[in-house]
């Protein structure tokens, strides 16, 4: 089941959004944070990590996405349009990302289906 099957109630699910963070000092990784949030009732998870390698990013994203699907939660990645296209999930683009038309072009060229795109607006 892809995220598109859940879009009619996306506003309700986004009332509480958890952005994962790996906290080595606390012994928690992204999956631990996502699991705790989902068990606590969160229905939207954003996976964000700007330091790990591409393969590790995709593996972590896939693991979180699987948990989100089990809990009926929305899942999206931060800034990684390429990963969103491969995993068929949403993507959030921050203020410093390329123009949205570039994201749409990238996403459209890597997949035959469309997910959803969120962007931050405001001052840098």
In short:
It contains five helices and five strands.
Describe the structure.
This protein has one domain: TIM Barrel. The protein is globular and about 30 Å long. Residues 109-114 have low confidence and may be disordered. It has a five-stranded parallel beta sheet. It is of the alpha/beta class. The chain is built from five helices and five strands.
For the largest sheet, list the strands in their spatial order: 1-2-3-4-5
What fraction of the residues are assigned to beta strands by DSSP?
5-15%
What do the pLDDT scores average to?
78
Report how far the terminal alpha carbons are from each other: 36 Å
**Helix proportion range:** 40-55%
What tags apply to this protein structure?
five-stranded parallel β-sheet, 124 residues, TIM Barrel, 5 helices, single chain, alpha/beta
List the helices and strands and how they pair.
Elements: H1 10-13, E1 18-19, H2 30-39, E2 44-47, H3 54-71, E3 74-78, H4 81-87, E4 90-93, H5 100-110, E5 117-119
């Amino acid at each position: 089941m892809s995220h598109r099957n859940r879009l009619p109630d996306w506003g309700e699910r986004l009332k509480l959004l958890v952005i994962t963070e790996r906290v080595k000092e606390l012994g928690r990784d992204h999956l631990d944070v996502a699991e705790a949030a989902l068990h606590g009732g969160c229905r939207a998870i954003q996976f964000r990590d700007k330091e790990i390698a591409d393969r590790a990013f995709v593996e972590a994203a896939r693991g979180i996405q699987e948990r989100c699907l089990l809990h009926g939660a929305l899942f999206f990645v931060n800034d990684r349009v390429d990963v969103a296209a491969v995993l068929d999930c949403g993507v959030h683009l921050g203020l410093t990302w390329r123009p949205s038309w570039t994201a749409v072009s990238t996403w459209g060229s890597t997949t035959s289906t469309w997910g959803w795109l969120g962007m931050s607006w405001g001052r840098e």
